[in-house]
Amino acid sequence: MESSSWSPLSLLIAKCRSPSSPHCYSSAAAMAISSPEATNSSMTQNSEETLLSRPFDLQKLPHVTDYLPDLKSYINPLDNNSFYHPSDGFYLTQSDIILRQTIIDLSGSFSSSASQLAYHRAGPRKQIFFDPSSTRAAIVTCGGLCPGMNTVIRELVVGLWELYGVRQIYGVVSGYRGFYSREPIELNPKLVHHWHKRGGTALQTSRGGFDLNKIVDAIQNRGFNQVYIIGGDGTMRGAVKIFDEIRRRKLNIGVAGIPKTVDNDVGIIDRSFGFQTAVEMAQQAINAAHVEAESAVNGIGLVKLMGRSTGHIALHATLSSRDVDCCLIPETEFYLEGKGGLFEYLEKRLKENGHAVLVVAEGAGQDIIPRTEAQKQERDESGNPVFLDVGLWLKSELKNWWSRDHPNDLFTVKYIDPTYMIRAIPANATDSLYCTLLAHSAIHGVMAGYTGFVCGPINGNYAYIPLKEVAEAKNEVNVKDHKWAWVRSVTNQPDFIRK
Q1: Start-end ranges of CATH 3.40.50.450 in the chain?
Q2: pLDDT tens profile 203-230
Q3: Residue 419 known to bind ligand
Q4: Which of 5, 141, 286, 465 has the fewest CB atoms within 10 Å, i.e. the most exposed one?
Q5: Catalytic amino acids?
Q6: A GO BP term, please (predicted)?
Q7: Is 308 a known ligand-binding residue?
Q8: Backbone angles phi, psi at 464, to 5 degrees
Q9: HSE-up (13 A, CA, CB side) for residue 211
Q10: Selection from 87, 167, 72 nearest residue 127 by Cα
Q11: How confident is the model over 354-367, as pLDDT tens digits?
């Protein structure tokens, strides 16, 4: 076929199929566009023009040369690494990008943003801006525990050591406050060799303790020029401030965030590390609750899972289990008494099956749990509102309801809270691999001079995302999409909307 006979859409597809082309925006998008469904006769010329005219909004990724323009660059030592044989396409360039949105309505029936957000693809670059022989890297873990934290630490150490030849790697003990209150510990591959098999964090962690000037002063005084920060959304907000202060002082220091939250509530990226391990472990709690409930007369198995502001663990565990009769998450409201309420529904399930399993995320129902004025004002060390135990409250309310309405009938509630069991275990195989890819992505980015970014998968491809975007984004369960409808079809629970 002569190129002159190709449609504009076909030309775009052809360019996307060429790995060396600067127009290679997304192979996934190219595959979607070139599929038979996308190229059938119903696609109009207007649809093609609409797609081609839509610009890609490539998000600005901070680089140390933005404020240190005369910084010396070096050839990536991977060129001479005995484990690698870089060939064409091995090193990524500025034209390697990833689209945030890969599903596009070509008909124009549904409104969407004028431009498609795009991010730089994660991976090694030909030029680096840190001399491995003088690089001093610091690694810190902040906030609560999560499966895979030790794996990330281990892979950061091994990656820096083996890939780039960095020999000065330090662990900051006890979270953010450790920068200025504790001596860092020197790390090497031999020391961290078995860390991925351990739960928790070998560097220890804490909440709070964020003092911006003390932290940046300590980073500067200790000669750290790379800082890897592992933590959740609150930690990432702190990392933004650290990066901004480093940039204000014009320090040659790269800052990378590795998002950690077992709740999977970090926005933009596909998922947080540890999430799949948490869902897998939640199954054991649900299975135990099901056995207990099924073995009792009018038995209810009540399981509280993690999820302060989002219900992803509860949702995925419910879909995976299929033994759950009701799933309550923070994104949806519910009520106990009256027509269409939780008690009415559970009574129906007990009459039908003789037992029921109820899964609740820790952040669900917080607005209907009675609180004292002091409890309303209470905050934890990170400044977050202190949540009351929705599981214990529900257990008490269920017992009160049954003793009031069915005083002569047997009834049992078995309450299981596996929170600390889930948080403290090592990552499973899938999350361990994910942690390795996150760590190596962060190393490649910082060595290439990028800073103030978070690494993570977007539509299955690893990208560099500005820290500020991730710190401000939230990954909530969309209760209007197919997945939540699937949950309700599995459980047959009502929508708990008062008529």
Answers
A1: 120-273+427-472
A2: 999 988 999 999 999 999 999 999 999 9
A3: no
A4: 5
A5: 263
A6: fructose 6-phosphate metabolic process
A7: yes
A8: -105, 125
A9: 10
A10: 72
A11: 999 999 999 999 99
